[in-house]
Each structure stands twice: as C-alpha cells, then as structure tokens.
Task: structure prediction
Amino acid sequence: MTAEMDFCLLGPLTVRRRGMVITVPPGSQRVLLAALLLNAGRVVRLDELAELLWGPDVPPSGRVALQNYVMRLRKALQDSGPARIITQPRGYLIRLDAGELDISRFEAHLDAARAAARGREWAVAAAEARAGLGLWRGDPLADVDSEVLAGREVLRLGELRMEAIEIRIDADLHLGQHGDVIAELRRMAAADPLREKLHELLMLALYRDGRQSEALAGYQQARQVLVEELGVEPGPRLRELHRRILNADPALDVTAPAAEAVHRGELAVPRQLPAPVPHFAGRAKELAALTRVLDQNGAQAVVISAIGGTAGVGKPNPGANTPNRYPGPVDPSIVIDPFAQLRA
Result:
C-alpha cells in the first residue's frame, strides 16, 4: 500500500508497481478491479459486484465465485494480505494512497485548471489542463468488458475530458495562440456539432486571427445544425458572440499576454541599458588620480570630477574600478585629461 503503485483507467486498464506492469487477467478480474477502483475508499456491495459480473442472472454459486475472483485479484496485485482489498460484511473496499489512481490525478489537474481560469491566470490554466489531458491514453475502461460500468463512467469521464480541452483552448486564446487552435477546433466542432462551446471557441479564434467573415459563417453553420437537428436556435452565449463579432467589438481583441503577466508581477521588466564596462585599458594613471581624490576628501560631501576627451575614445569610469564610497566634498577644479600623455 504505497504510492509506488499506479492504477490507470484512462485507457486500457493498466497496473504498475515501481514502473513494472502487473498483468491483470482479462474478464471478470478486470471488471472487479475497475469497479473497486472507481469506488476507491468506499465499500462496493456484493450484489452490485455480482450484477457487474453476471448481469441480472447471478448464478447460485455467485458469492463463492466472487470470493475466488477477489483472492485471485489480490494474488495478481502481489498483495500479501487483505491490506489493499479489504473484506467488509457487505462487500469489498480497495484502499489507495494519494496519487495512485490516474482518474484522481486528472480530476485534481482539472480542478486546478478551473480555479486558474476563474482567476484569469491563463498560463496556469493551460498548463494544468494539459497536464491532466496528458494522463489519457485512449478511451477510458477500454478493455473492461462491462456495459454497466461503461454506461455509468465512460460518459462522465468523457465529459470531464472535453471540459479540460475547452479550458485549455480557452486559455490558449487568451494567451494569443488563436492561430494554433483553429484546425483542432474545426475537427472537434465537426465531430460534435451540437456542442455550442466548440463553435463559440472556433468563432473567437477565427475572429482574432483576422478572419471575421469566416467567424460569421461559422455561426450560420452552427445555427443550421442546431435548427435542423434539435429545432432550436443557438443559445444566448453564441448569439451574443455573433452580435459582437458582427459589430467588431474591440473588447474581443486579445490582450497581450506579456503585458498581462507584467501587470500581475509574473515577469520581470527587462533591463534596456547595456551592462557597464568592467575595465578600461591604458587608463591606470587617470583612475589612480580619481581614487586619490576620493581618498583625500573622505566621506564629507559630493566629489565632482570632470574627465576630458573626444567622444568614443573611452573615458574611464571611476566607479567601475574603485570600491563603493560615501561622497566627499565638492571640488570642481579637478580635470583629468586622458590625452595629456599623448600630447606631451
């Protein structure tokens, strides 16, 4: 019972221990394990498990057969005792450590993505949604032969996956990546034409990509499908977006993501000035003279020294090669000419 176990249902049922795949025999044992995992921490009643395994016609020996399936499943999981799959008076319970089930990890990422989107933290929302979607390996419970589990869980998980995709795309649109999602949105809208949110995102992506006419045409296509298939007009959100695109509402334009991040303090403002020159070659005499001025005047007031020389020849910077000092007294008479030796 350690976090080194990994139970995966977002695709074919897979179990790993320390990265090594554990074989769970197909058929009843996979159905039994999936049912327990989908109810982790909760007792699954014997009659519920029996219905999942045999349907309404449970054989007379069903209880004994179920006990044998649990015993074999414990052996397959290399469970030395009943510590993970626990026998209860009315059924069985599987106990998981935090992070052992991929569905739980996906739902945690989805919750974080929702919260970030509500807070308009679009980079975080996109990252959390992508992390959750990265756990999917195909259709959930792909090799678990149970129509009851499929009807109960597959649709629910599929809806959560679609929500994560929509949050990710919405975040990408706020981050100015509208051109990158148009092709994906076209495919998704064609595959699920009754889902208005996909049409909404596609219209917005097209408009922000400078394709207003295509965005308006997309609305007409969505409306036609909804009227023909369901006999209803588009919902208020889609109609409102159509109106705003028609009027070229400037509020639909994306805000520069870098500016938003700077405003929130997430990005440091870059330094625009070049770095100071650390050393001047051939200016040892002049630098020594400036250093003596600082040493002689101490920390009483400001020292002002004029350095003469044609532009571009490299006049020394006393602060680059002298330690930090408190300013000394004003002495405007000090003039150091870097070309004095050349003229001598």
